[in-house]
Amino acid sequence: MIIREIRMEDAKNLLILIKEVESTSAFMLMEPGEREMTLEQQQKRIETIDNQKNSTIFVAEEDGKLIGCLFVMGGSVKRTKHSAYLVIGILQEFRGKGIGTILFNHATNWATKHNISRLELTVVTENESGVALYKKSGFDIEGTKRNSLMINDKAYEEYYMAKLL
User: Fold this and answer.
1) Which of 47, 61, 124, 165 is deepest in the core (most CB within 10 A)?
2) How much is the pTM?
3) How many whole angstroms separate alpha carbon 1 and alpha carbon 37?
4) For the chain, which residues score pLDDT lower than 70?
């Protein structure tokens, strides 16, 4: 398995990966089939992130196939440039195999080199494996976002979690 930063030629495979992750995870922001991003929009998104000093996308690749990704999206204004919001997605058959931990380690190392001192994310409180991964990676719960998401007509809460570097 290889962990590396995204390249423009990964745009199509990243789009496929994200849609597959969304179709097999109960706790992603978008529901299966809801994402309507085109290849051109994905390419533009990669280009935009690539041009920001405090943002990147890491991908996990095995045998030429993208199996996971971690978006690191840095703050866009002067007062939040030191902070980055993270979103992770791993194909279902590769979850629980340490890929998330490796992706977070890469993101942490990258962040320190890019003057980012705060990493943050949100996670559905009932996503026990996600919460465990984030705690294992050094994230602390800072608060609870009540009735944050509606999934199948049921309200779910999310934890705000952060890691200070």
Assistant:
1) 124
2) 0.94
3) 27
4) none
